[in-house]
Amino acid sequence: MARAGWEGLQFRQFFSRASMSQHIPRKRFGQNFLQDASVIENIVHAVNPQPDDVVIEIGPGLGAITQPLLDRLRHLHVAEIDRDIIARLKKEFPPERLTIHEGDALKFDFGSITDGAFKIVGNLPYNISTPLLFHLASFGQRVTDMHFMLQKEVVDRMLAEPSTPDFGRLTVMLQYRFEMELVLNVPPGAFWPPPKVDSAVVRMIPAPGRCGVAKDEAQLEALVTKAFSQRRKTLRNNLKGVLELADFAALGIEPGLRPENLQVEDFVRMANHLAG
């Protein structure tokens, strides 16, 4: 990094710490503020925003990533629920550079911001990360990529391979829609206050059709949810009344397997069999 850029990042890190001393993190919003300069640099580098990109940041907090993003963008959108943080952002950034969307990210229509493609980046609240990921996945056809800071165990579930303990409903539904990769691991000390868990940054790139195409995605989601409703039970038991033994035979899937033993493609084939 150029010296001027590094000094700027150091200044922002100092400024962010000064802001932290004046803001009490709210547990109900899952607030842990990023403060590590090298982690911030790595995240922004991974996002690689271009000046005219439409970028939406979820949970800007005290601006640790917001300012470095604005150094590269003409304009940035942020989604924030904390009224105190919203007031800070309005004081620190002019509206022609920063548009603030006030409210719960779980209910926000991210597609309403632009008719074109967009990027999403954020340090997602760990207490709502799974439902928020499912909500964000619904905009998969509109985004170019998404970069999220998450609890590491959630990232492990997202990237899990079949026949491993982490492979589950979240794995199947996200791998069905996205190519995903680990960008970096982040220790608790990179935040204030430090969380009690390790964190990681994941990159998600839409990849429609990578595991087949479901005729009815709602049916696929319902099937996957039911299949993983009791992880220790077999497909025969969990999908009783949905798929009969003759259906499993036609699909070439052993009904005595547990759901985590299947490939993502197998769930797509089962859903399409039902739809057909």
UniProtKB/TrEMBL annotation:
Record family assignment: Belongs to the class I-like SAM-binding methyltransferase superfamily. rRNA adenine N(6)-methyltransferase family. RsmA subfamily.
Reaction equation(s) it catalyzes: adenosine(1518)/adenosine(1519) in 16S rRNA + 4 S-adenosyl-L-methionine = N(6)-dimethyladenosine(1518)/N(6)-dimethyladenosine(1519) in 16S rRNA + 4 S-adenosyl-L-homocysteine + 4 H(+)
GO cellular component, one term: cytosol
Function of the molecule: Specifically dimethylates two adjacent adenosines (A1518 and A1519) in the loop of a conserved hairpin near the 3'-end of 16S rRNA in the 30S particle. May play a critical role in biogenesis of 30S subunits.
The protein's name: Ribosomal RNA small subunit methyltransferase A
Gene Ontology MF, one: RNA binding
InterPro entries for the chain: KsgA/Erm, rRNA_Ade_diMease-like_C, rRNA_Ade_methylase_Trfase_N, rRNA_adenine_dimethylase, SAM-dependent_MTases_sf
NCBIfam families attached to this UniProt entry: ksgA
Natural source organism: Aquitalea magnusonii
Domain of life according to the entry: Bacteria
